[in-house]
TrEMBL record:
Transmembrane residue ranges: none
CDD domains named in the record: NAT_SF
Superkingdom to which the source organism belongs: Bacteria
Molecular function terms from GO: acyltransferase activity, transferring groups other than amino-acyl groups
Matching PROSITE patterns: GNAT
Residue span(s) of domain N-acetyltransferase: 2-134
Protein name, per record: N-acetyltransferase domain-containing protein
Amino acid sequence: MFEIRQVEPSQLPLALLMTADPESTAIKVYQDKCVAYAAYLQEALIAGLLVAVDEESHRAEIFNISVYPQYQGKGFGGALLSETLQCLSGQGIEYVELGTGCFGYQLAFYHKHGFRVDRVVKNFFLENYSEPIIENGIQHKDMLRLIWRSTEQREM
């Protein structure tokens, strides 16, 4: 059985979170200020999501969505993201923002879930990560900031 639950951020193992963010020091900085959601398959943890929520401004920021490699590409991450966005919208959150690299499978994934490009942060990965992040033989340099608006989802 597949199930999504809200959990304590500390219940998401560092090894899982590092499948999405290779910088463990960055994870430790944002993990404590986040709400965590986890996906379980037959009671085994397979995916996690960390989101910081600011109810006053009706905004949230997803810092990490990660799926163990053997479960990637099977819809679990998408289900976790959709459920989280639905929960946040139900709490009155109107905007959900996140940062990601400028290329790779994750762009199509986020666009499929209603995120749109908001802006580019030049040299983010060069200035904030101790080791180069390489994907498909290309080094990530700039970060795309994507935004999901609950009002746009109702219009779709």
